[in-house]
Structures are given as structure tokens and as C-alpha cells.
Amino acid sequence: MLKSLFHWKVLVNILVAAAVFIGLVWLTFRWLEVHTNHGKEIPVPNVVNKSVHDAIKILDDTGLEYEVDSFKYDPKYRPFQVLQIYPSPGSRVKGGRTVLLKVNPRTWAQVSVPDILDRYKGLAFRQLEQVGLKVGDTIYEPSIQRDAVLRMIYNGATLKPGALLPRFTTIDLVIGAGPRRNISVPNLVGLTVQEAKLIIAQNLFEIGLVEHEDGGSDASDIVYYQDPASMDVRDQGMQIDIWASKKTPAEMGAKIAQLNSIYRIKMDYSEPTYYDDAPVYSTPSAPSTGGTPEAPKQVVPREEAPRPNVNKQENPKLATEQKPKVTEQKSKPATTTAPKTEEKPKARKVIVE
């Protein structure tokens, strides 16, 4: 066994196989050096803060490939300005290596407008902020949807959900302010159904029952009855029912009278009269002091008797002794009412001879 292993033919085959293996390995590495440009490295040029067009031209002249990636928008830099580069400037790379350029875009990246219609305004504000949109003016208009978003406006045009806008764009919102109160109902009798529906919407009401006499749905039929009646006062969003026919309202008198008996019921708002057979007892009232006073009696002053002449020998004081009679009359009250000031009799002159 060992003798056959060390035979010269076997040794020759082993040496030939080893030589072939070594040759293949050498050729492989040599091919790799040629294919990968081993030992031939190129420094990455510094193209930061250059425009993307200038950076691409420099990389092409150097023999490097490039890939452009839009970086987040920064208003401090120019549009299409190179902000970063990978590998970093000065790094040595092989020829044909791809260099990544991060460029400042022209404006903010576009975002999709979320669907916030008919939603509460607080929730709508948060959804817009999450996607990077800003809320400008909030316009309130009468609507039964209080504090709900009715429309979105951008540059004066109505904005639909799903539209693409640049990030941080400002949009205006139309929000419901609640229903308007005490609106007069318009007169729809004599109009076509199409015209009546348009006027109902313009006056902030809703279209209710639309009944055609022939059971059809012709919008050219003439309205001959409506409920509520014209000039009635209703709140915004209330429904208005209409009845239409091919005939004129004058020809539908019987039908109008029938509808009036149903929808125009007259209510008696007079005060009801109550009948009670039970005796009515009245409590005696205390005499009031503020009643009508009795007519005051006229007080006729009594005439004094003529006084006799007094002689010189008489004391002149006698004329004054009769004055208490006048004072006695003053102390007597005339009536129970406010005392009336009596005229004081004038003192007569007494001549003493």
C-alpha cells in the first residue's frame, strides 16, 4: 500500500495538481486587482454648499457615480443646494463609487390634507397639526352643526380632503355657528318644485315632504300648498313640506281646504270660564283710615253782640276782657279732617271819651 503511494507517477500527479491550484488562485487575485482597480483610489471632492448641478458635473469629471436624495427643506439655504455628502469629502474611494448627495428641496415636502369635514373643530385642529398644516382664519356661518368644520379653503378655493399641499401651508376653516333663530318662511306657492327647493336652501331650511298630485316626480309641477305657511317664523334647519300639481293653485281650492283642515287648525286662546256653585265668603274688611273723608261742615262764625260804649271812668281793660271768647272758638275742632284755619275776627277799636 505504501509502496504504491510513493510511486513516482503518483508524485507527479500530485505536483501537477498543486501547480494547477496555485495558478488558479494567482489568476483569480490578479483578475480581482484588475477588475476592482486595486491601488487606484480617488478622493471624494467637497461639493457641500454647491448647487446640485455643479456637484454632479464635478463628480462626473472625477469618475464617481452619484445619487440625489431630497433632504428636509430648510428655508435658511438655497433651493437645490447640497447640504450633505456620503462618503464624507476627502475620503478615498474606488473609481465608479456611488456618492450620495442630500439636497435642499425647492419647498416643503407635500402632505395629504386629512378629512376633517363634519368633525369637531378641536379634533380638526389637532389632525391638521399632526400632518404639518396650519390653521389660518376661522370663519363662522349659521349651521345646525355647531362647532363642526363645514369647508376648507385655500387661496379662496374650496379644498377637498386628500389634496396635496406643501408642509406648513396655512388653510382657512369654515365652522358652524349654530342654527339661526326666527327666520321667516318664504312663500313657495305658485313656484315650480325646482324653484321652491332652491329658495328653501337659500333661506337655510331643509326640504321635507314633496308630494305630487299625480304621484310622479316632475320638477316642473307648480306648488299649491306648503307647510309651514309663508311668513311663519321657524329656526334654521326646519323642514318645509310642499304639495305640487300640474294645475294652478286656483284650481286646487278643494284640496287646499282639505289640507287647511289638517295643518291649519285654529286654536282658541281665550281665557276659559270657570263656574263654581259654592258660596263665596268675603272676609270683613277693617275700616280704612285712608277712605274718602266726609265733607267738612261749614263753620259760620258767630257775630258778636255790639259792645256798649265805655265811659271815661270805666277801666279801659274791659275791652280786652272779652277776647277769651274768641279763643274758645279756636279750641273747638270743626271736623275730623285736617283742621281749617278760621279767620280771626279783627279787634275793634274802642274809643274812650
Plain-language structure description:
The chain has 353 residues and is α+β, with helices and mostly antiparallel strands. The chain has helices at residues 2-5, 8-35, 52-62, 121-131, 193-202, 253-263, 318-321, 324-331, and strands at 41-43, 65-70, 82-86, 92-94, 98-103, 110-112, 134-141, 149-154, 157-159, 164-166, 170-176, 183-184, 206-212, 222-227, 233-234, 239-245. The chain has a four-stranded mixed beta sheet, covered by helices on one side. Strands 2-5-3 form a three-stranded mixed beta sheet, with helices on one face. Strands 13-16-14 form a three-stranded mixed beta sheet, sandwiched between helices. Mean pLDDT is 78; it is low at 310-337.
What is the compact description of this entry?
By secondary structure, this protein is of the alpha+beta class. It is built from 8 helices and 16 strands.
What is the molecular shape?
elongated
The N- and C-terminal alpha carbons lie at a distance of 210 Å
Mean pLDDT: 78
* Helix share bin: 10-25%
Provide a count of the helices: 8
- What kind of sheet is the major sheet? 4 strands, mixed
Question: What's the total number of strands?
Answer: 16
Largest sheet, spatial ordering of strands: 7-11-8-9
Secondary-structure element series: HHEHEEEEEHEEEEEEHEEEEHHH
Q: List low-confidence stretches.
A: 310-337
Given the helix and strand composition, which structural class is it?
alpha+beta
Beta-strand percentage range: 15-25%
As a whole number of angstroms, the C-alpha radius of gyration is 59 Å
